[in-house]
Amino acid sequence: MNATWVRFCDLSGRERRDFFLGLLFLPIVVTWLRVSTFRSVQHALEKWHGDALTNQRDDTGALAESQSASRMLDAASRRGIVRGNCLSRSIALWWLLRRRGIPAQLRIGARKIGNQLEAHAWIEVAGHAINDSDDVQTRYAPFAGPVTDNMVAQK
Hints:
Layout: H1 2-9, H2 13-35, H3 38-48, H4 60-79, H5 86-99, E1 105-113, E2 116-125, E3 128-129, H6 136-139, E4 141-142
Antiparallel strand pairs: 1-2, 1-4, 2-3
Helix pairs in contact: 2-4, 2-5, 4-5
């Protein structure tokens, strides 16, 4: 416990804020996805970030900041009350990055193993997988382009 606390104290202010946002926001996303549709969650979060993407950042610091935020959200999912799945963690990270003006893309891919179809979600910034290994696109066939409202069927 003491070593964990020391590591936490060594984090920057932004890293601590990302960790706490993950602790708070991840359970909300998990619950929201259980009671609503993916499309409604995505649409509401697109509205919630407001005009953040009008000032998009294309700097090299955005990639490092994205990777740091991903590590903090992952730590929050391990330490928090809700672990979440790849979709809920990716949605939380996607929202956080887009609010900062980082053009993050939510990607979803699929693969078939035997008779099972598996799906996986991850975030990409500048063509790099942020919350997964860079070979994720070789393990899962991603849908063409980012996930948009047009790709999700209405109920």
